Amino acid sequence: MTSTPSQTHPEIPSEMRLKVVLPTKILMETAAIKVIAEAENGMFCLLPRHLDFVTTLIPSLLSFVSPQGQEQFLAINQGILIKHGDEVTVATQNAVQGGDLGMLRKTVEQQFQLIDEREKTARSVLAKLEVNTIRHFIELGEYV
Known about the structure:
This protein is of the alpha+beta class. Helices cover 33% and strands 40% of the residues. It folds into two domains: 1-99, F0F1 ATP synthase delta/epsilon subunit, N-terminal (ATP Synthase, domain 1); 100-144. The protein contains two helices and ten strands. Strand 3 and strand 4 (42-46) form a beta hairpin. It is elongated, with a radius of gyration of 22 Å.
């Protein structure tokens, strides 16, 4: 009678717990048998028995396979991935979950474009504040 690795070594996990954390909430927490992500030096795959791992993620698609064999996708802005034991945690500023890649792409374009517009507005306001502050210092220097 042959046995599977999980039967001979019950302490070795056969699945991982994937947790995706945003600054304001936990986006998802689920079981996964495989996680595929992309770092600065390329794509990689994590399986339950892999060694612990930490890396920074670039804006890309993160995919994972559920224990039932269903592949799911997340678009992430950028972030940090930590694998410790059977826990995989992804911390990112923004992520969008979706099953259909076409719909996910449209959603990402819309949401990330809105974020880009907000960031541009914030940078513009900050630049105006900096200019006004410098102008006030110059004016103060003229009176001293």
